[in-house]
Write a structure and sequence with these properties.
Layout (H helix, E strand, L loop, with lengths): L12 H15 L1 H9 L11 H16 L7
Length: about 70
């Protein structure tokens, strides 16, 4: 996959507005306070075998249903 570099001045106005809104919300005091209340999650690398088996089954079903349209 190739990435096309887009110069800042070539971006549509909607992209600039979205970027500005995201920066504003990310720096907002209320947002920062809310994010501090969220628990810290860590990735679990070891998983019980029965859960691994269920995930494998789910992946198989998703792979075979991949060609069908979902509701």
């Amino acid at each position: 996959m190739t990435h096309t570099k887009v110069k800042k001045h070539d971006r549509p106005a909607g992209d600039k507005r979205l970027a500005r809104d995201i920066r504003h919300q990310a720096s907002d005091r209320v947002t920062r306070r809310f994010l501090r209340t969220l628990p810290a999650f860590k990735v679990v690398t070891d998983m019980p075998e029965h859960l691994r088996s269920l995930l494998d089954q789910l992946e198989d079903v998703e792979a075979t249903a991949g060609g069908r349209e979902r509701r």
